[in-house]
Design brief:
four-stranded antiparallel sheet, alpha/beta, binds pyridoxal-5'-phosphate, 14 helices, globular, 13 strands
Length: 342
């Protein structure tokens, strides 16, 4: 085990608990490329059912899940519309363009994370030999920790459908959104043709995402998964972790949200820190330039890890299952020491 640190960089750092490791070690396995790993099939159908879709596909990462969604919805020369800040546009090495020959059409994200409906409409192209074919609208929920307003999703999806576009939701943290809003995850997934969900973030599994959608779409994605090298063998040990996470680690996301709120409230007390945004399990903090670098170093020296710009100005703190209320309190104590409060 690593030295004990309070690691607020991301909810991806969560490690499988002793109980999760137990179900993993006891898992019955088969060869999933042959369709013989029963736990993987169970995980796929469990998530499909929860999301109200026909089928699911277990994949190694959220990046691959989004890539397979883009490539299943779009052909070469098609175009997908996504937020300028969307993970599938910004943080996936341009996979849709590189591997799928799918042109991204980014649109600015508004402060609340949405894409303005007028902006979406403005970039949907008519059928003309000059243009790429507009094919897909991809949204993200939560985005940077923010939950998309529900009325908004209906409107955005309706515009896409009116123009004959398919829709994909990058729901890496869709369970955070559902818990924060007190709605079933199915309700948030319902408007979309496909949804990608991460098991390896706040849900605490070590590896894995699941893409859900229609039988036809998932059939395509299954072939593409093989093509990009994502066909895996005895995945039952990972599916067991995923099933455990769905059973035990969904409702408790509310604790992460409460911890993030407490963290934001605590950090807001210091004049040199400005809370830019605090929602679900993420807190974005702007540190005054006069202290930013020293503050970032002080946190590191006290084994408190956060995501930060190189100059320490903008920080992202993420709460998750491996940083409890006591860790938040301790972190706030260290922050207080920096500002000579404690
Ligand atoms: C983490 C994340 C992904 C995928 O991440 P992987 O590290 O590839 O599993 C996709 N979308 C969003 C919004 C994410 O936060």
């Amino acid at each position: 085990m690593n030295a004990v640190v309070n690691d607020f960089r991301s909810d991806t750092v969560t490690r499988p608990s002793a109980q999760m490791r137990q179900v993993m070690s006891a898992a019955e396995v088969g060869d999933d490329v042959y369709g013989e790993d029963l736990l993987t099939a169970q995980l796929e159908s469990e998530l499909a059912a929860r999301m109200g879709k026909e089928a699911g596909l277990f994949v190694p990462s959220g990046t691959q899940s989004n890539l397979l969604a883009l490539m299943s919805h779009c052909a070469r020369g098609d175009e997908y519309i996504a937020g300028q800040d969307a993970h599938c546009y910004q943080f996936e090495a341009g996979g849709g363009a590189v591997l799928g020959s799918i042109q991204p059409q980014p649109v600015p994200n508004q402060p609340d994370g949405t894409l303005a409906i007028a902006d979406i409409e403005a970039v949907i192209k008519v059928d003309d030999i000059h243009f790429a074919r507009s094919k897909l609208l991809a949204l993200e929920n939560t985005i940077g920790g923010r939950v998309l307003p529900e009325g908004y999703v209906q409107k955005a999806v309706a515009v896409a459908r009116d123009h004959g576009l398919c829709t994909h939701l990058d729901g890496a943290r869709i369970f955070n959104a559902a818990v924060a809003q007190g709605v079933a995850v199915r309700q948030l997934a319902e408007p979309f043709d496909s949804v990608s969900v991460c098991l390896s973030k706040g849900l605490g599994a070590p590896i894995g995402s699941v893409l859900v959608g229609s039988e036809a779409l998932i059939g395509k994605a299954r072939r593409l998964r093989k093509m990009v090298g994502g066909g895996m063998r005895q995945t039952g040990i990972l599916a067991a972790a995923g099933l455990y996470a769905l059973e035990h680690n969904v409702d408790r996301l509310a604790e992460d949200h409460a911890n993030a709120a407490a963290l934001a409230a605590g950090l807001a007390k210091f004049d040199a820190l400005t809370i830019v945004m605090a929602e679900t399990n993420m807190v974005w903090v702007e540190a005054n330039p006069s202290i930013a670098k020293d503050f970032a170093k002080f946190l590191r020296d006290h084994k408190i890890l956060v995501h930060g710009r190189y100059d320490g100005g903008r920080q992202r703190w993420v709460t998750h299952l491996d940083v409890d209320a006591a860790a938040v309190e301790q972190a706030l104590h260290v922050v207080g020491q920096f500002f000579n409060y404690a």
